[in-house]
TrEMBL record:
One of its GO terms (biological process) is lipopolysaccharide core region biosynthetic process. InterPro entries: Glyco_trans_9, LPS_LOS_Heptosyltrfase, RfaF. It catalyses: an L-alpha-D-Hep-(1->5)-[alpha-Kdo-(2->4)]-alpha-Kdo-(2->6)-lipid A + ADP-L-glycero-beta-D-manno-heptose = an L-alpha-D-Hep-(1->3)-L-alpha-D-Hep-(1->5)-[alpha-Kdo-(2->4)]-alpha-Kdo-(2->6)-lipid A + ADP + H(+). This is lipopolysaccharide heptosyltransferase II. The keyword Oxidoreductase does not apply. It holds the Pfam family Glyco_transf_9. It is an enzyme of class 2 (transferase). One of its GO terms (cellular component) is cytosol. Its EC number is 2.4.99.24. It comes from the Bacteria. Keywords: Glycosyltransferase, Transferase. GO terms for molecular function: ADP-heptose-lipopolysaccharide heptosyltransferase activity.
Length: 351
């Protein structure tokens, strides 16, 4: 246990976390799990979240069990929530911490009669939560601080440096198996590119810019691995087409677990502000993170080997999924040379 920190507000052995449904947010939630376990080493943390998050949770040693929440994003499905809550009663959780701010996300802990139910006020959750916190956005500007604050007594608002940094555990053998399956046994250093962003096009640096970065590192003898989900296949394909040989499109061809184990074997990563950016940060990869419509002050990559690149236009951050001005200058104007310079200097510094 570290000294000089307030005692944890949890003084029992089993805790249920209602987890977020975004990759990046789930990685930042690991800081909460670490903060809880740092202060209560015997605490068992179970995380209730959609099944696709299981490979992420399996790589977080602080998590005791990943519990499937088989309810679609935005669905209420009271019957399913009551059934899950009945099953959870047998676990005798002493506390639930609810990370999403919706009213429905607080229902299962309430139906499950978990005695202490912690979360931010969100959508009128009085009664459903009985350890309600007021969100002070000025003193808790970052998502990770907000999550970690829920492990603390009410009046303690953690600074960024009080938040443990997410660190995903990886499986090198599984990474080797994935490389063999995908024909990636070439031993040359690999640059990982993540040109997708589930949120929308206003977070996506142009594929032509990614391809220019790929050509530069290819000319230095590297190979290129382009990561993403099935939804990112087209943009990843455009990068590979434009970049030339030695560029492999992995979008939609890996499980999330394989993507993590493969990314752990890259020499460096360039990514949009996306879930995979947080994966790269939690793997301590040398990382250049490209920001457009979003704000790095809110969800920065939590890694000392990450650099943020953005133009900081007057209109930025607008937090929009698509550019309301129709030009996307915040990303089109961010020249690939600038990203290469940032990554080269990072590689020099971390060599
Ligand atoms: S309004 Fe500005 S910050 Fe927002 S997407 Fe367009 S160029 Fe980017």
């Amino acid at each position: 246990m570290r000294h000089g920190r307030p005692a944890l507000s949890v003084a029992h052995t089993r805790c249920l976390i209602v987890g977020p449904s975004w990759v990046g947010d789930m990685i930042m939630a690991q800081s909460l799990f670490m903060a809880l376990r740092e202060r209560n080493p015997g605490l068992e943390i179970d995380v209730l979240a959609p099944a696709w998050t299981a490979p992420l949770l399996a790589r977080m040693p602080e998590v005791h069990a990943a519990l499937d929440l088989p309810i679609g994003h935005g669905e209420l499905d009271l019957k399913a929530r009551r059934r899950i809550a009945r099953e959870l009663r047998a676990h005798h959780y002493a506390q639930a911490i609810v990370l999403p701010n919706s009213l429905k996300s607080a229902l299962i802990p309430w139906f499950a009669r978990i005695p202490r139910r912690t979360g931010f006020r969100g959508e009128q959750r009085y009664g459903l939560l009985n350890d309600l916190r007021r969100l002070d956005k000025a003193r808790l500007p970052r998502t990770v601080q907000r999550f970690v604050a829920l492990a603390m007594p009410k009046n303690h608002l953690p600074a960024l440096e009080d938040c443990p940094r997410p660190q995903l555990r990886t499986d090198p053998q599984a990474g080797r198996v994935a490389r063999a399956r995908l024909g990636l046994e070439d031993p040359r250093p690999a640059l990982g590119l993540c040109p997708g962003a589930e949120f929308g096009p206003a977070k996506r640096w142009p594929s032509a810019h990614y391809a220019a970065v790929a050509r530069y590192y290819r000319s230095r003898g590297w190979q290129i691995w382009v990561f993403g989900s099935q939804n990112d296949f087209e943009v990843a394909e455009a990068v590979c087409r434009d970049a030339g040989p030695d560029c492999t499109n992995l979008a939609g061809r890996t499980t999330l677990g394989e993507a993590i184990d493969l990314m752990a074997q890259t020499a460096a990563v360039v990514s949009n502000d996306s879930g995979l950016m947080h994966v790269a940060a939690a793997l301590d990869r040398p990382l250049v993170a490209v920001y457009g419509s979003s704000d790095p002050g809110f969800t920065p990559p939590l890694s000392p080997t990450a650099r943020i690149e953005r133009l900081g236009l007057a209109c930025s951050p607008c937090f929009q999924r698509e550019c309301p001005l129709k030009h996307l200058d915040c990303l089109h104007g961010l020249h690939p040379d600038r990203i290469v310079r940032a990554l080269d200097s990072l590689l020099d510094a971390t060599a």
